[in-house]
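Stress-response A/B barrel domain-containing protein
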Amino acid sequence: MATKPINRVTLFKIPNKGDIPAILDKYTTLAVDAKKDNKPYILSAKASQVIDDPAGRNQGYTVAAQTCFASLDDMKFYDEECEAHKAIKVFLKPKAEGVMTVYFEADSTSNL
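Tokens:
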């Protein structure tokens, strides 16, 4: 049985809006920069500023990042060993007041 791709969404609370462009820039080359066995392994990576919601549904999160992996093992590698991900975390940690990550299996009926 083939594994389903894993979609991962990470939300960041970045209080200084001036930091957001540099954060978004870090995600523009992530899918190419991240290597496993000297080859890119992330299927896609993108990030965007969250739209301000006057009703407060965004709960203070200001940046959303979405990455897609071929397998859960690839996502675990990203979390535990990937040098490109480690570099993003070092860059983001002093800028973020909160982070939340969720992930799920993609299927043919999903639009995500």
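Helices lie at 20-28, 30-33, 72-80, 83-92.
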